[in-house]
């Protein structure tokens, strides 16, 4: 309980300005000032008029949108103060910024921002121009002028990167200073803009600074561009476009800050300008049609003043972080609000304008919500997080410091519509209240009297002035002296009143000495008490020590056990590792096998797939072929059918011709023919001299003048249909004409056969070559005999006689119908052959056509030595 209380106390001490108690204390409204800029051109007509030191009148011009909408009327807006165009920078600073800087020195937080339409003079007010500097340089100047004599050495206070500070010893700080010196020697550019500096005589000092504190100033400079935070002081080249985006975080005391931002310790206003100018260079500036040097981003320059009390001797800072007091002044130059269609912005500019307007709108929404909460006592959520700018300054609005706003306005009529919005915003913002920060004197709360530093200086000066050598070693417990009572009276020695003053001083000192004696006595009593307490503690300590020793013994035993367990664990781990290795190997082996298997399976499936594919292709091919075959077969069948019909037709015709012939011809002969026909039709044995019948086509004579046609016997459909001439087989020559004239067709050099196998041909004509149709197609020739001779494979002579009837054809030609073949084969009697079983050396064979059923009849020739044999066609 006690520690919690002390913790609370420490927090209060550390950040006095941020105490949450302030929330319920006094409140200050946001102070809103209005600054009108001078008109740019004489021809410009104004829409604003200052009617009192804190009131302006806004009259809508005829060109304004709201005028056209007929809802415009002249409006009066009241501010804390209105600065007319001729107001100079110093005046603005004194009225607006100086109170905040005074608060800063005293440990209060402050936020000052400029708000207005683009080109209305925000940057002019905040930064100013060369030789006419604005609020920011003036703040820096006055701060350094004020704290100059009380600055801590550099690096005594060091940012801890979490929005707080550490306090370093003098030695540590000195080391860092030396390191920095080395860095600077290796060259550093001076970014300072001397134009922003002021002559030191123009700068006044803030009175009432706590002289028993040491101070240090730190600055950060960030830019919020397109709702992203960039650190303008980040290490790196002065001009870079690739600054990393920073995030906003909440520190341990619930203050918002830019995480990782570069916080530079500044020891003079010049150094501060240097940092500011570096950031300014990096700041994104772009040209719009309205303002040639328009800020496209919100820039936030923050000055943090760290102060810590000096010790009793008035020399060094108390090395206790808890006594630190940090106050902050944020100077914000907001980007100009603008009507995008008037600026004619496109692309990135339009996006920027959108973001600017959005963040300003969020600022407005936050303030409205805050005001609403304050007026109606509600606790509605304020959307600070919707924009970086409001998120960063959340603490200010929730009562962590003074907030002031300078509304800049361009009084020209052209800007009326935007100015109207700005005025409304300003009016609303003025109604928001923030709690007054309270200041707690840290030093007094820990029993330190003020004037320590001054006393130390006085004493040192006095000691240095004493000429006696022992004075150098004079030590005085200044802490005790200067902390014993009220502040020393302001006493100055002058000759006339010296005795009186010394008397007074002696009395004062005597009083202090008596007090000191009292304190000494009380201290002695306290010392005694402390000693006895220490003895008790010592006893306790001894007990603790013995307990500690026994615990150590237990610990040693436990450690031994732990070691043994560790060894076992190591062994188990080793075994486990071996198993794991094996497992890994096996897993790898299995993986390989699986891989192989998979590959083979892939191969198989590929093959299968190929086969399937081939099979399908073949099937398709065969199906095509089969279909084609079917088609062909169909066609053939059709053709057959057609031929059969044609044959039938022709047969019918033939039958009709035959019948006609039969009717007209000789009955005997006809009967003979009919008999022969019948015999032929019924497939009976063939005898030489019988009625000629159709021979196969290959035996037909080539000189038939009539084209060969197929002749099919109705009764014998299987018989050859080819080569049958259109002739009448029953043709009969008149006996007078047919003298059985033979045409002998024999080769010229015929080998004499020595046999009488030739038929008895009495009326014959011998030709060696058939050259003319007339040789056959004449009235005398009715028989034809073709004689051929050739050697067989054994070298024996073979003579063949093909005999046939010459039959006239319908077309007036003639054709030979072969009806008898006689073959004479001679064998040498001396030759030993497989034919030994043969009876004679000459064999005669006779064929009749190509039919198996053809009978072989004895030759019609006279008998001779050669023996005729009936040979089957096969
Ligand atoms: N009170 C003034 N006295 C003299 N000149 C002024 C004043 N206010 C503004 N100006 C001039 O007007 C111009 C535009 O001002 P400034 O750049 O400050 O506008 P801004 O509001 O910051 O614009 P933006 O928002 O676009 O950055 C500057 O050239 C500046 O010198």
Automatic annotation (TrEMBL):
Entry GO MF terms: ATP binding; ATP hydrolysis activity; microtubule binding; microtubule motor activity
Q: Which InterPro entries does this entry report, sorted A to Z? A: Kif23_Arf-bd, Kif23_Arf-bd_sf, Kinesin-like_fam, Kinesin_motor_CS, Kinesin_motor_dom, Kinesin_motor_dom_sf, P-loop_NTPase
UniProt KW keywords:
ATP-binding, Coiled coil, Cytoplasm, Cytoskeleton, Microtubule, Motor protein, Nucleotide-binding
Pfam short name (any one): MKLP1_Arf_bdg
Q: Which Gene3D superfamilies does the record associate with it?
A: Kinesin motor domain, Kinesin-like protein Kif23, Arf6-interacting domain
What start-end ranges are recorded for coiled-coil regions in this protein? 548-575, 626-664
Query: At the top level of its lineage, which domain of life is listed?
Result: Eukaryota
Compartments it resides in: Cytoplasm, Cytoskeleton
Residues noted as binding ATP in the record, renumbered to the chain: 116-123
Query: What residue spans carry the region label Disordered?
Result: 1-20, 702-736, 829-874
Q: Where's it mainly located?
A: cytoplasm
Name its GO BP terms in alphabetical order: microtubule-based movement; mitotic spindle midzone assembly
Q: For the Kinesin motor domain, which residue ranges apply?
A: 29-432
Per its UniProt record, what CDD domains does this chain match? KISc_KIF23_like
Q: Which SUPFAM superfamilies does the entry link to?
A: P-loop containing nucleoside triphosphate hydrolases
List the record's Gene Ontology CC terms alphabetically.
kinesin complex; microtubule; nucleus
Q: Where is this chain compositionally biased, Polar residues type?
A: 702-711, 829-845
Protein's UniProt keywords contain Cytoplasm: yes
Q: Give the family, as the similarity comment puts it.
A: Belongs to the TRAFAC class myosin-kinesin ATPase superfamily. Kinesin family.
Q: What is this protein called?
A: Kinesin-like protein
Q: What taxonomic classification does the UniProt entry list for its organism?
A: Eukaryota, Metazoa, Ecdysozoa, Arthropoda, Hexapoda
**Which gene carries the instructions for this protein?**
LOC113498683
